[in-house]
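User: Mind token order:
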Amino acid sequence: MSNKVSAQFIPTAFKKKVENLITVSPKEYAPIDNEFRREKRDTVLMAYLNQEAEKANYYEAQAYALNHIGRTLRNLSQFEKAEMYHKKALKISEEVNSIDFRVLSLNWLGVVYRRIDAVKTALDYNQEALRLAESVEDPSYHIKRSINVSLNCIGLLYQTLEQYDLAIKQFKEALKLEYELNNKLGLAINYQNIGHCYELEGDYDEALENYRKSLAFNEEINNNMGRIICKNSIAQIHLKQDMPNAALVLLEPLQEQSIQLGDNSITSSVFINLGWAEVKLGNFTEAEKHIEKGLDIAKQYNMPSIMVLAYKHLSELETMRGNYNAALQYFKQADELDKKITSGTNFRYMQDVISRYETEKKNNEIADLAKENELVRLRLRKNQTTFLVSALAIGLIASILYILHRKYQSQNEKRVLSLEQNMLRSQMNPHFLFNSLNSIKLYIINNDQKNAVHYLNKFSKLVRKILEASSSKEITLEEELETLELYMNIENIRFSNEIDFTINIDKNIDLGQIKIPSLALQPFLENALWHGLSPKDGKKKVSLDVAHKTNGHVTITIEDNGIGREAAHINKENRVLKRKSVGINITKERLANFAKDYQNSFEVQIIDLFDDSGKARGTKVEVEIPVI
């Protein structure tokens, strides 16, 4: 950045342009961009502009030049250098208080961090850019464009966090503004991003429609980069629809085009998709060559998300070759790299929620692959047995009985796994997670740092406990009660801390010695809050009591002073948005399995409470579990 550019290598016409610009010294982005629109992708010319502007103390031109050098380097996947240039531009913009260039620098820093999967840092920069741009009372065309860039970038970050509805909302808002500005490049970008969201949701028809709209705008403005991106995306949809030949027609011409373009992110994606198409066509040697080339580019330029895709397709390739051990190794590489992306410091207050959620999905995928390997192993065993055993009737009957037995075991294991997954989804309800984060965000917005940090810590501990408990068949009652206290602390924020929650335990009970299915009591507490206490006015109380029974059971009682089940049912029917309550049924089934494992019984009673006049005064839940 400090290297001096020799004037002898700079065209005379460009030097004259720079002299004229410095003489006039406009302060806004638009007039500077009008002069250098054709040269702004040339890093040598921009370095000369920066050098001359620095001599003349013309800071706005410096910020312009530095940002465009950073943008060009970013598109060449030189992310560390790009970050350095954008930060220098941001510092200069802040020193002269230039809104135009501050917003530009913030947005483009956000893009750099998004490209290297630093999601939280990217979100910080783009949100600050949006806040700053929207604070301008009479925004210029460039500021309006910057608002659209911010919305687009934030949408892409929501997409990274798998919040596709929120992402599409951001993109459509930007789309509306781009139509007002008649900015066809912006329209192409947003239709491309909307298509990508629909693709990730599995709605391939909607994805194709939006990709084709984007391609039409890119063709209209002759944008070669956008054209390549769109064709690569459409080819990817064809691959997901099992149409590899249609994909190859689009992808093969893109090899050289993407290399000439110089954007390594696009080039690596094109080669990986080419390899994927060859995998589907059974051309394994060609497939491996293309995927490895895409992977090498991704490694060279530090693009972890693309590396994950490459490893997954290599895993698929080895599976089709029958090399199951190699397939599993590639899949583990993908999973480990994905964990690094999602569990780093970039997620800060969201890291436990997002990374664990993603880990759960990846573990399920690994489990599926392991099951496939198990099925292959069983087939081999069956073939060996069939070869050794004669065609006698007794051998055939024995084989059938064995297969039926394995089928019964498999169905039973699948049922238990499904039950545990449903339990975790019940606890990790997205409404609870993001409503909680929004509640904490209010403290941040109100600059209440103490409460924000306090509740953020509790929220992190709660999510960690839920995720840790979900991997355990049973936990101690002491651990369960700790989780419930954290849950109440978080939920109480949205009740303005007006709920009086107490836990009463018989003094002769050792909570550490009593086992209970993990996360079994939270659904009862959630019902008490949302169906009993939420619509109630006045004092709100919930108590949890633990007492011994004489028949080798412990009774756990959850009592609230809410509106009662009958009134709650009426409220629920009248709501426009009905809250699903599946946790109780899941918990009953898990308690049944728990008691069955120990050859014992359990009981759950839900009792309506009434006062002397017959008016509902709350609900009591009694859960009896065996003492193990």
